[in-house]
Structure formats: structure tokens, C-alpha cells
Amino acid sequence: MNAFSGSSSLCCVSRPGILIVSVLLFLVWFVVHEYSTLGNSFGLETFGLLMGWGSSINYHLSRLPQLWLNHKRKSVDGLSLAMFAIIFAANASYAASLLSMIPVSGPKFFYKSASYIYGPVGSIVIDVFVLIQFFSLRKAHTPSSGRILP
Asked: Is 0.70 surpassed by the pTM of this model?
């Protein structure tokens, strides 16, 4: 089924999402267009910082319902530990690369890139909670034979 046809359940989810993305893209275009006509006094850097923080915060807030659902269902069905480990390693290496630049570049770099540092570090924190759920809920679903489920 097509996500845009009237008979799909994704229809109601996709249309608001497309509308929100379209509005955000228009706002970004408008700010960049106005910035080019106003010169450097407009504060495009500040706008970029706000967008970075907004993106990071929204991403992390979007992961909280999954933590709650896992807790409520008492299950982490569908979690691929291998994929999870790769994503965890990617976030850790990205955060380490950004943090390693602070001593070289100084505090101004930290100020400008704090939202980008928060992104992977915040993901790692949430991933730790998912791992805690994975191991605690996995023990609860171990069969009586003593064999651990994959």
C-alpha cells in the first residue's frame, strides 16, 4: 500500500510529518535568503546553533517513548544486539573525535559544537538505558531449561 493513499494507516502519520518538514525547510530557506540580503548582522551562526540544539533534543525525545514501551511491555523484542553495538560504537567514536578537538581548538570550539557533542553523548546515555532494559528483561524471559534466548 502506498503511504499517501487514503487506505493506509501510515497516511495519517505521514501527512503531518511531511507538512512539518516542509514548513521547516521553508523557514530554513527564508532565514538563509534573508541572511544573504541583510549581511552578517543577522546571526546565521546563532540560527545554526539553535537548529543543532533543536535537532539533538528532538531526536533524544523521540527515543523516550520506546524506552517507556519496552518498560510497559516488559520486552525488548526486535532489538538486534549486533546492530545496537555498532551504533553505540559509532556514537562513541564520533563523540570522542569531537571531544578530542576541544584542547586543540579551545573553548570557542566547545561553544560552537556543544549541540553536536550532546547528540552522540545523549544517544550513548539513552543506549545505556536500553542495554539495561535488554539485560534485565532478557533474564525475565529465560526459559526454565536454563537456555538463554537469542
From this structure: no
